[in-house]
Write a structure and sequence with these properties.
This protein has 637 residues and is mostly helical. The chain folds into 4 domains: 131 residues, Tetratricopeptide repeat domain (Serine Threonine Protein Phosphatase 5, Tetratricopeptide repeat, Alpha Horseshoe); 176 residues, no CATH class; 108 residues, Tetratricopeptide repeat domain (Serine Threonine Protein Phosphatase 5, Tetratricopeptide repeat); 91 residues, Serine Threonine Protein Phosphatase 5, Tetratricopeptide repeat (Alpha Horseshoe), CATH 1.25.40. 73% of the residues lie in helices and 1% in strands. The chain is built from 29 helices and 2 strands. The protein has a two-stranded antiparallel sheet. A hairpin with a 6-residue loop joins β1 and β2. The longest helix has 39 residues. It comes from Candidatus Lambdaproteobacteria bacterium RIFOXYD2_FULL_50_16. Keywords: Coiled coil, Repeat, TPR repeat.
């Protein structure tokens, strides 16, 4: 066996190591990655330095062509040579994640973090792996960036009037400013009178009062806003009409959001529970808003103040600042101290993992609790969903935006939003618009798929039925056009598409005829048999309808005691089908009327009919699965 110098020319490399390395490379090319890894490991044991240098070059080559499975096989050997390389561990974590090997990826990211606990790339990728988000490195960072420092709940817009509290606070500020001005003017008038009487002590006292009023804030407190809203709620509470009750719920909902945003969690919960208890209104946000309210009661005051100082930009809520501070909170004195809001939110997410508000607010709650990794997991899940929906949180708003795009002929944007909706829920309306977009693009196959999915959701959907009928006619007409041009293969392709939409008897018959032109006897026979079966079924249906008419007439004559006509109609029905009920009625009538001969003849006929039916069933059972007899259809040229 020959030995070779290593690349540096300082040490001889065993031939065995070279052979093992080359064999490993061949196995990689054959996509036998695990076996290749075993060979590389053996080669490494023979010549560590030589293998490391060669595998490093090979790793870079496979990484360039994005063969991540090969990279993983090579990289794990390289990591073995340098277990302190936290950057390589992170890259290998990404490679494992590309193969959906999330547990292996998580272990590699955690290994990197053990080596370098402040390495953000490993931390962010670990969060992405936990969230099952297909983003890596800088793209993970970009998605996280708007949320990473978020410690304030993300709340919906106010109902009916989004800037409601801005307006109320402005109005109350104006009222308080006007009230302060009047007080100052009154005190100045009194001061002038006291000054005229040379009452200097009183003048100084009044001056101090004026100064106190001038420095007094004119912005309202939470209680001022609450009092204003409560007055409006009292006006609406006793309203019996729908609009009054709707407005009442809207004010209550808005007040709950406002209270929660400004640190008055217990009052927010009062509002939300009142809505939840109303049997006539069900707002989809209430369950998770109640959870946020409970969580807020358990955030210590010191932590809440620290969060308030660190937040530079509010996500929602009024732009004006209220006078005064919210009440102190303590997890030990919270009325919900024995509840677990995080677990409650997890339960909601389990029911709807694609809800944007749930994911982002779960991240906020975890961020407040100091669990950054799990917070980032939910921020990434929610962030990716928001990227798909153009930053829109509610699905009904996503749908509304998609329709807006559709109506302004921005079909690409509309299709993206509509597909996003259909990935998250069964949505017949979204599917209808998807189908219409494909029709506008003349993509009939894709349109048919969309309309068929509507039928899976709602089998009785009229809009899907109409659209599919139009598609069937389109394919049928295209088939006829191709046939008339002598393009029989293209024609049969269109007829098959029509059958995929609706297996109408005439379409089956026409398709069979075209297959005969193409001399495809097997396919023509199959379709002809299907057509004959449908005709037979339709014939049986018509016969059954006539039979029921005879039975109905027989019952009518029986009620009138016109027995001979009743027997006549029952006999007609009996001759059409083996029916034990009709047999029993006729037997009863013949016996009651003393017609023994007719009764005996009836019994004989019954026995023969039953015997024949049993033989027919046995024959069908024996011939089940055999090719049915083909009836030649007329040739259509």
């Amino acid at each position: 066996m020959f030995n070779f110098l290593d690349p540096k020319g300082t040490k001889q490399v065993p031939q065995k190591a070279i052979d093992l390395l080359e064999h490993g490379k061949k196995l990689l090319k054959s996509r036998l990655y695990k076996r290749a890894m075993i060979e590389f490991n053996k080669a490494f044991q023979e010549a560590p330095e030589y293998c490391t240098e060669n595998l490093d070059v090979l790793f870079k080559q496979y990484r360039t062509v994005a063969n991540y499975e090969a990279c993983l096989s090579i990289g794990l050997i390289l990591l073995k040579t340098n277990p302190e390389d936290y950057k390589l561990a992170t890259v290998l974590g990404n490679c494992a994640r590309k193969q959906q090997s999330y547990m292996q990826a998580n272990n590699l990211y955690r290994h990197a973090l053990k080596l370098q606990k402040d390495y953000k790339m490993a931390f962010f990728n670990l969060a992405a792996s936990l969230a099952r988000v297909e983003k890596y490195d800088n793209k993970v960072t970009a998605t996280l960036q708007p949320f990473a420092a978020l410690r304030e709940y993300v709340l919906p817009d106010y109902m009916v009037e989004p800037d409601m509290f801005d307006r109320i606070i402005k109005d109350l500020t104006d009222i308080l400013a006007e009230r302060a001005l009047k007080e100052v003017m009154e005190l100045q008038r009194m001061m002038e009178a006291k000054s005229a009487n040379n009452e200097l002590l009183e003048v100084h006292r009044l001056q101090r009062e004026i100064q106190a009023i001038e420095v007094r804030p004119t912005t309202p407190s939470f209680d001022d806003v609450k009092e204003f809203i409560n007055a409006r709620l009292l006006d609406l509470k006793d309203g019996t009409d729908y609009e009054s009750r709707k407005q009442y719920i809207a004010y209550l909902y808005n007040m709950g959001l406002f209270a929660l945003k400004n640190g008055y969690a217990l009052y927010a919960l009062e509002c939300f529970f009142s809505i939840a208890d109303d049997p006539n209104y069900a707002l989809e946000d209430i369950p998770w808003l109640i959870i946020l309210g409970k969580h807020a009661t358990k955030v210590p005051t010191a932590k809440r103040l620290m969060i308030a100082k660190s937040v530079k930009k509010k996500i929602s809520g009024p732009t004006a600042v209220l006078t005064g501070n919210p009440p102190a909170t303590d997890p030990e004195t919270s009325p919900y101290k024995d509840e677990e809001p995080l677990n409650q939110m997890t339960d909601l997410l389990r029911e709807d993992p694609s809800d944007r508000y749930l994911n982002i607010n779960m991240g906020v709650m975890l961020n407040i609790e100091g669990n950054r990794l799990m917070a980032y997991k939910h921020f990434l899940a929610g962030g990716v969903l928001l990227e798909k929906s153009e930053g829109i949180y509610r699905r009904k708003d996503i749908f509304r935006k998609a329709v807006e795009y559709y109506e302004t002929d921005q079909l690409k944007k509309a299709l993206k939003l509509l597909k996003t909706l259909c990935e998250e829920e069964k949505n017949s309306q979204a599917l209808w618009y998807i189908g219409r977009i494909y029709l506008k693009r003349n993509k009939w196959d894709e349109a048919v798929d969309a309309f068929k999915k509507i039928q899976e959701i709602n089998p009785t959907s009229e809009m899907a039925k109409q659209e599919l009928a139009t598609a069937h006619d389109h394919f049928y007409q295209s088939g006829e056009e191709y046939f008339n041009e002598g393009k029989y293969k293209a024609a049969v392709g269109q007829f098959e598409k029509a059958l995929n939409v609706n297996r109408a008897p005439d379409t089956i018959k026409r398709t069979a005829a075209v297959y005969r032109v193409l001399r495809n006897k097997v396919k023509a026979a199959e379709l002809q048999a299907e057509y004959d079966k449908i005709l037979e079924s339709e014939k049986k249906g018509e016969m059954e309808k006539i039979r029921h008419e005879y039975i109905a007439q027989g019952q009518a004559f029986l009620k009138k005691k016109v027995y001979h006509k009743a027997i006549h109609n029952y006999e007609l029905a009996f001759r059409m089908k083996v029916d034990k009920d009709i047999f029993m009625i006729l037997a009863y009538l013949y016996k009651s009327l003393g017609q023994k001969d007719n009764l005996q003849h009836l019994v004989l006929r019954w026995n023969k009919m039953v015997e024949f039916e049993e033989k027919e069933k046995e024959f069908q059972k024996q011939n089940d699965g055999t090719t049915p007899t083909r009836k030649e259809d007329e040739m259509v040229m």
